[in-house]
Amino acid sequence: MTQFAQAQSRNSGSRYSMGHKASSRPSKASISCPIFNEKLYPYQGIGFKLGDPFALTYKFYASKSIAFAIDAGKTASGLYNEYYRNAFTNYMPDSLTNTENIQYLSHKVTSNVFLEGKFLYQWEASKISKGLHLYAGAGWQWRSANIKYDYLYSDTSGSGVSYIGSLTENRFTYGPVVLLGFEYANFSIPVSAFIVIEWFSDVALDPGYSRFQGGVGLRYVF
């Protein structure tokens, strides 16, 4: 009876050791704090960014140092009110006589979208905080806005002609962006938080115009 029990014990131990072979490569599902593990690249991330512009964002973490990102959404049109108002003068007809006058009244942005692609170089900043990465990069941004202007037309030649009119213009432009940011990924769930500051420069519709942009966001990383 004792010999039978010993045999059963040996057989049971043998089955256990064969069914639990150790793996040298950890599973992504088992890593959450911090998220990124050198042995598991590439990663992907999808999420959103609040700020100017507001965007849905996708990021491909090709390696520990290299990443690519695509953002799409809309700019904060309220921040561009003065810029769009001043742009009204660009749409004045050349055929106006000395007695004719067109006066700006108001404008409304009826649609406003953008698309941006970026190359990013990132590095660990674990000496500052565990799970922190800094990054810098450059890319290209496309912007399109439809703007409806209301204006007052008047003729002082004695005809007494005066009326309120409107016109709609599409402002499509593009240009390079450069950026700095940091990403924090030391959570108990596969989520990263980031803050980014960008500098956009228009090279098409209004060459020389440039503006700071930026925001904060979250990405689900998988």
Can you describe this structure?
This protein has 222 residues and is mainly β. It has a domain at 35-91 and 114-142 and 174-221: Porin. It contains 2 helices and 8 strands. Strands 1-2-3-4-5-6-7-8 form an 8-stranded antiparallel beta barrel.
Short account of what is shown:
With 222 residues, this protein is mainly beta. The chain has helices at residues 2-19, 81-87; strands spanning 43-52, 54-61, 66-74, 100-124, 132-155, 162-184, 191-201, 210-221. It is built from 2 helices and 8 strands.
Which features characterize this protein?
eight-stranded antiparallel beta barrel, elongated, single chain, 55% strand, 2 helices, mainly beta, 222 residues, disordered N terminus
What is the CATH class of the domain at 35-91 and 114-142 and 174-221? Answer: Mainly Beta
Specify the structural class: mainly beta
- The helix content is 10-25%
Q: Overall pLDDT, averaged?
A: 87
Second CATH tier, the architecture of the domain at 35-91 and 114-142 and 174-221:
Beta Barrel
Oligomeric state? single chain
Shape: elongated
Q: Provide a count of the helices.
A: 2
Q: Please count the beta strands (DSSP E, at least 2 residues each).
A: 8
**CATH fold topology of the domain at 35-91 and 114-142 and 174-221:** Porin
CA-based gyration radius: 29 Å
Poorly predicted regions are: 1-23
Strand content: over 45%
What are the secondary-structure elements, in order, as H or E?
HEEEHEEEEE
Separation of termini? 54 Å
